[in-house]
Amino acid sequence: MGVLSGAGTALADEAPQPQSGATATINGLKTYGEAVIHEDGTDLTVPAGLFEMSVDGGGTLQTYCVDLHNPTQRDARYQETPWSGTSLGTNKEAGRIRWILQNSYPQVNDLAALARKAGASGLTEQDAAAGTQVAIWRYSDGAKADAVNANAEKLADYLEKSARNAAEPQSSLTLDPPTVSGRPGGLLGPVTVHTNGGTVTVTPPSDAAAAGVRIIDKTGKAVTSAQDGSRLYFEVPKDAPDGSAQLTVQSSTTVPVGRAFASDSRSQTQILAGSSESTVSATASATWAAVGAIPAVSARTNCAEGGVDVTVADKGDQPFTFELMGEEHTVPAGTATTVSVPLQEDRSYDFTVTGPNGFSRRFTGVLDCKTQGIITTKSAQTLSDPSPVALPVDTPPGTDLAATGGSAITPLIAGAAIGFVVIGGAVLVFLRGREAQAGE
Question: What is the pLDDT of residues 226-243, one digit of tens each?
Fold first, then answer.
């Protein structure tokens, strides 16, 4: 999600895709109360509160849901993602959601003071989490939602009315651009480090060590550490054969509150409410060739346009002609072009950029840019298999997911023609049938 990239004259289409920021696995709901969702004349009681995620390499994240109507997959993997790669990118109220996160639980852990501001008689952690989630849903999904607990509802109302626009937070760690190209014997780059933390560790490309490729700064000094704003270069020996390499930067930092987290498994989008010291990393790749075109390809989810923007740069001395989605495009030497690929919401995509000399770069994922309401009974399809659900972290092993979904929404609206019920990040009716893979 966010940025995908690749470069090279003959890269395998399964080459690793650069990442940035924190990568984590969702564990389940940790601190939560109950809320009621009012929709289509029905009232649905759902759990509402904080999720917990385990960060790859160490660290813990706390998140709220900003995608009420989609389910949460058990053990889904999430990647830190810019707002533009999620429904927040087209939500004019996204800034208010960040304000809520900054001014409520768990960022504000003085619950007595928070209760006084909200005019509540008191707040437990569960009440505070439920009230905060309800306020977020009102802005993220336009939901008609109320907290079941009276004090939690007062908090939700206070947060909703007090919220002001706040800017999108900086990424915990990114490299820009994620891919560069050029001639051997020169410097490829620069690649700029962007981080909210302090010093980051720079790991040179081990697969290119035999070719003598180094990571240096603008003075020619080998780099092993960097900071926000540092500019890194790939130094490629003049006699190096055509090839490619990847560098990695890593740091330990607290991920900024308000960062979005998205999954390529269509598990509901999350927004960060709190972070321990966590391991974050980012990668960038470089490609070089002695003659001809030298392409560098990257792709970025663009929810505002409902698709993926593919950017192809050519640092060579000849034009680069490539094919994408059945159409041919040519990039003049020394320039770059961006091609927008429109995609269907909630559909898996799989497309490849191909070019001369065996060039191939494959991009896969799922476009998940919108929050969607309950589908009407006219389009409802009963799911024959148990649908993944989000469970509290203390759910006993072996718990039947479908049964849990049913028991967690009591009472459900009698007489409604609902095909199937699951717990999303909140428990919500999920009526979408399985959708065909892209291209079918």
Answer: 999 999 999 999 999 988
Sheet holding 327-331, edge to edge: 327-331, 320-324, 348-354, 360-366
DSSP 8-state secondary structure symbol assigned to residue 438: T
User: CB–CB of 336/352 below 8 Å?
Assistant: no
pLDDT score for 14: 37
Q: Please give the Cα distance from 358 to 379 (Å, whole number).
A: 45
Residue 369: alpha-carbon gap to chain centroid? 11
| Pure H helices in 142-294 | 150-162
Tokens of 143: 């939901």
Nearest CA-CA partner of 416 in 383, 385, 374, 387? 374
**CB contact at 8 A, 366 and 347:** yes
> CA angle, corner 275, sides to 270 and 276, nearest 5?
145
pLDDT grade, residue 209 (50/70/90)?
A: low
Task: Round to whole Å and give the CA distance between 145 and 48.
Answer: 10
3-state SS of 137-165 is HHHHCCCCEEECCHHHHHHHHHHHHHCCC
**Is the pTM for the entire model greater than 0.90?**
no
62 Cβ partners below 8 Å, 6+ apart?
Answer: 30, 50, 51, 52, 53, 106, 272, 273, 274, 275
Tell me what percent of the residues of the chain surpass a pLDDT of 70.
79
